[in-house]
């Protein structure tokens, strides 16, 4: 987005080098013309509103920071209402405000939980309240003692037929709810996950709508202890969120506040399964994780945009026509940066595809077709894990690519990192998710030849026989431009790793023990499978018509960079399974270098295509106009720490040292 | 260190499992009995002094945080004087205070710069002032526009023979000094690096002692603009340091404040080289980088200690005798954690060796023997790069290993990460350093067979002919326990990668162009070389007598884990160069798993051996007694944010939403 404020564009020369239609690429990145326009309008709306200023965030102490977030959430809500924004527009507006807030959990978890797990009656009652924000909700699942193992949660919900109520209770210290966002200070309600008990029997963990705070004075209701769990990683960052702790001392709620779409408790205390299958809740997980994958491409592209622009501004050593070399021209810089640029595009494409997958799954669910659900579930779990892990590492790599200046908060990268990393943990620890994927992979392998052909992203496993013996056909570097060659190498690698794991597993008499013992290898097989999904979706995209001069060509280069840089990084997999030979790897490496050169003149335009405002980037190094140094310098002087030349504490603690008022006889 | 406060030891069962002499291991870790005692005493001294409390650090706003650091530095100085501590003790005390402060740069950079680059006369004048802290100094090299490329610095020091002075000047915005620690608010003096100009001619970049602030009122002297560059990554963390910005407007200093050990300017303005060779400054770099490598093992071991203890406390899923499985028993957890534990020991051993190397280099320098200097310089540069990169990533991995709770500041890991990562950038950007190593590797390869056999850590290159054709002899998993098998694989990999690079380079008519084009591969060769150094130093250590029952056995297991996990991670290198075959890799992988099982019962004792106090760890998750949950819970309630149930801003910004005082006709 052109933020020139009437000034000079120090990156103008770079922009002139681009060999593709920038507008067409912007639309491709946004999804379509309609989505582009919404995003563009919302981003400008936020950027031009001084109330959404965010550069002071890293300096604010917690209470002030939090208050500031409440102010922004209020402002956003007002604008949404005043401008009569659609749901799509509102969600984009909140995204560009770029500050974690209680509203994220309200809209992102509380509402979907009721939609997914509430009966129609419950939805009719609660959703309008939530939509109008007459109540504010959060998602209270995790406890001090249990996160990954949801079945191990200790909070109890005991049915009392006498009063037709559930008694929600925290029986141990470790059963304290711990982490839910929005819980600490703001939510009036929560979906609380608890162990359902009727008549002394347990019936697993279920969701309950529980009011936490008075709608009058906002104080915790009787029996409820609630607070904030304290500071989290980073300055500013996720500390704008009130992740909370919550304990129940025999809190009573009406029976109809158990979310009863799949399981009902009658007023007699009987537990009845509804005809809605339990897998239905997978639908919500697919939804939530699909948004996480999409967000990965957003966070990653933001970091890449900053590092790419700064790498074109920064000059160090060497000389080109008398000036020093732009660091983006160093092959080491390219070999670290361009794969991340390619990954941003790859994740965006797979994110778009997952949106489609979710729609497809939803339609099938409506038609009572559950056949694709397990595969869709595994696929989103795996992609959530892959994309968030890669993005977290990539943000930090982008920060390092900026040298010393990347360590300043004004670079925007420290806060981006700190705010992003928990995505590797929430909604499923990334390793635990990969182990789930591995289970499905092993099941798929064991069913090969059983007449039940694998579906969806597992389909290629049906060609295992061929893939176990295929040979790489690359003879010269350019052969790696052929998508079939790339795809076959990735498919072969994945199948062979899975089959090898299955073979090793079969040596164990106790399969569960085997699974535990070989779990590190199984995780490797899952990663290979997930990387293949991304590569194949990228390649599929390239088979479509892509409007705009030169756009497809750029994407082809990026697809090559994405695939071949993964191959380089995981070369051990490809070689040890014999999918490729060292000479093929060396050809791929040669091609990769030449693809870097191809992308180089387009690099700035490729990040301009993300259409991010300077406000959204929040980075002096990533400024659209490249005018980095004067702004870095100005930024420093704005810091309140520079208000006085002699800092607080100097006279008390440093002067006595200098004046030798602290001394011993020895010195 | 036993911090039980009279309470229960929840990790007692784990401690009973240990199969080695803990005290002997503690001494090995510390270096020797003497060093152990000093470290132990200083750590306890700090831990028991409430003035050194640090758990509020993440919550303090910058000015308060900084004041607090000044207070601690003052306290430390007082204790050092009162207790008449030796230099060694003082440095340990400062280390355990564990808070970056202006004193780090004073002792760590200012004093060594004068020692290394000052004449004897200059040393006699300035060192006593610095030792007594009558002046406080920093190291002002980096500028806004130049960090890595020191020869590109723009600050000028122009000799004026009329007054016998140098005029220090900042001719451009980008020539502003930017980053020096201690500069922003505290230093009275700096060693300033500037371009020496006499009689209109340039003579390269040299160091000058410049007074910045009045010793009376601490205000900047005329012509000097100085301030802080603003917030850096993380809460607390490195924000205790006043990294600064500095500009000179024709500031005059006497001629004798140029550091003249290698180059002198006479009062006539003649520039005279002394007989001390320029390489001498390498000595200082070897010294500084050796301390960085040692510090890497400290930071890494701290993170590993936290993650290991918490992994033994944390239970999730499965069941062992009715209780859930400790997450440390999952092979995925082990395969992520134990290589880092092994790496901590590996870096400690190589750090100890580097201390020896520095002594050796210093002695040779005294005897005018410069023969080992280039190799020592390359080796410390490479090891600085390797150990800091690995440590930064490892801290973040340890944080992830703690699941959600690792994201809380009270885990200690976020601050440790944020404070540690700049080590990848300062004292040489890690990629730039690896490129320097690559130059020496290429030179060494080109001189093979020239009758000039490679020395020191390059010695194995002399056996290139053999190593280019050697075959791995491992037949069964246990063969990988044989250090010769491991060493040969690592040596072969390194030689083959270097030789392959050299061969590819020779295809270029312009070698400099070739070096740029192939630089990513060259970096790979440098990493291989540096990893080999660590592996070989670990193996050398194991050839020595090691006191204490079972100690050597543990170290052997750790050495195996270190080497084989690197092999697994960089398998592509080993396979593509044909050093090992896929079957060898598979055997190594099997052995690795069994080594994890071997280490498992010793894991807690192996981190106890670091002898860290709970104060130093600063982590609720890493507590010695394992009493994690109650303390996490207490910690949350201590946060001032929990002082009131209804947060500031609620009435103004949230209540109107809930009460629908903000609304539109549409909803
Ligand atoms: C910023 C943030 C926001 C959050 N928001 C919410 C929220 O709004 N609502 C909510 O309910 N929760 C929330 N959470 C909690 C989050 O969902 C959990 O932290 C997450 O599910 C991980 O669980 P855990 O913390 O128990 O990790 P653990 O399971 O304790 O993980 C610790 C280690 O054990 C390993 N491990 C665990 N099980 C296995 C296994 N079976 N096999 C191998 N290894 C294993 C993991 O890989 C990890 O390395 C949030 C967390 C964070 C950090
Ligand atoms: C916390 C902190 C404390 C510091 N303390 C001090 C201090 O006390 N005194 C002081 O003088 N300085 C200090 N510094 C500055 C520090 O020394 C520099 O930041 C460091 O030398 C890196 O230089 P740079 O920032 O110019 O990085 P750059 O060189 O600009 O690096 C940017 C990118 O370009 C790449 N690059 C650069 N040159 C090449 C090349 N030739 N080939 C390939 N790639 C290249 C790098 O790999 C990197 O990815 C400090 C920095 C930090 C972050
Ligand atoms: Ca304050």
From TrEMBL, chains A, B:
Residues 22-136 form the Acyl-coenzyme A oxidase N-terminal domain. Residues 282-442 form the Acyl-CoA oxidase C-alpha1 domain. It comes from the Eukaryota. Keywords: FAD, Fatty acid metabolism, Flavoprotein, Lipid metabolism, Oxidoreductase, Peroxisome. The active site is at residue 427. Its cofactor is FAD. It is found in: Peroxisome. Residues 482-659 form the Acyl-CoA oxidase C-terminal domain. GO terms for biological process: fatty acid beta-oxidation using acyl-CoA oxidase; lipid homeostasis; long-chain fatty acid metabolic process. InterPro entries: ACOX_C_alpha1, Acyl-CoA_ox_N, Acyl-CoA_Oxase/DH_mid-dom, Acyl-CoA_Oxase/DH_mid-dom_sf, Acyl-CoA_oxidase, Acyl-CoA_oxidase_C, AcylCo_DH-like_C, AcylCoA_DH/ox_N_sf. FAD binds at residues 142, 181. Residues 138-251 form the Acyl-CoA oxidase/dehydrogenase middle domain. The keyword Lipid metabolism applies. The keyword Phosphoprotein does not apply. One of its GO terms (molecular function) is acyl-CoA oxidase activity. One of its GO terms (cellular component) is peroxisome. Belongs to the acyl-CoA oxidase family. This is Acyl-coenzyme A oxidase.
